[in-house]
Amino acid sequence: MNYVEGKKGWIEVICGPMFSGKTETLLKIIERMDLAKKKYIIFKPKIDTRYSINQLVSHNQKTIEAINISHGSDIKRHIKDCHQAIVIDEAQFFDKSLVKYLQDYANSGLRIIISGLDKDFKCDPFGPMGDILAIADKVTKLTAVCQVCGCEATCTQRIIDGEPAHYYDPQILVGTDDKYEARCRDCHKVIYD
Ligand code: ADP
Ligand code: MG
Ligand code: ZN
């Protein structure tokens, strides 16, 4: 099923682990909206400064301009009557109040295309993503390639100074070498102690 023009809005979620192609998929959808001459607006959370502060950037370095916002309530300040779609990347970093804003904008007729990590490095639901998946009209779960065994990867492995992260490690560890890999459930490790 796909979004039908002229109906009520629509919430479409693209999720999966790191490197699964979420941002690439968003960029492809955006390209199609350009071809169809649709008016859209792109947001990302202020916290995500991995590559660039005002762009969506995929791991293969494709980019597009995006507006940084810290909260779902900021959408109102940027959106205009002409907009037909809202695109959001890295939605896992927003708080759960985003869910209500998504419902309201979808009910007012907008197409919402939202992407984010469904699971954090512990394989637990990440931020508001569980709720967003529940309210979605369409969900696409992407997979990556496990960087250990080559199988389909659905998890994100966090590695700190060469070792699997501990369950209680904070989200940000200053002064450490933090990296992430796509892994299957078998190869994904979290240290509990
Ligand atoms: P995401 O937004 O889900 O993190 P991106 O769309 O930024 O992913 O990047 C996806 C691209 O990353 C793939 O097309 C591929 O070129 C590259 N890539 C690097 N490592 C992997 C991996 N382990 N599995 C799949 N793709 C990978
Ligand atoms: Mg991405
Ligand atoms: Zn594996």
SSE diagram, text form:
Layout: E1 10-15, H1 22-35, E2 40-45, E3 55-57, E4 63-65, E5 67-69, H2 75-78, E6 85-88, H3 98-107, E7 111-116, H4 129-135, E8 138-141, E9 144-145, E10 152-153, E11 155-160, E12 163-164, E13 178-183
Parallel strand pairs: 1-7, 1-8, 2-5, 2-6, 6-7
Antiparallel strand pairs: 3-4, 9-10, 11-12, 11-13
The structure holds adenosine-5'-diphosphate (ADP), magnesium ion and zinc ion.
Task: Write up what this structure looks like.
Strand 3 (55-57) and strand 4 (63-65) form a beta hairpin. The chain has helices at 22-35, 75-78, 98-107, 129-135, and strands at 10-15, 40-45, 55-57, 63-65, 67-69, 85-88, 111-116, 138-141, 144-145, 152-153, 155-160, 163-164, 178-183. The longest helix has 14 residues, at 22-35. The chain is globular, with a radius of gyration of 17 Å. The strands form four sheets. A six-stranded parallel sheet has the order 5-2-6-7-1-8, sandwiched between helices. It has 193 residues and is of the alpha/beta class. It has a domain at 10-143: P-loop containing nucleotide triphosphate hydrolases (Rossmann fold, 3-Layer(aba) Sandwich), CATH 3.40.50. The chain starts with 9 loop residues before the first strand and ends in a 10-residue tail after the last strand. Residues 22-23, 89 line the site of magnesium ion.
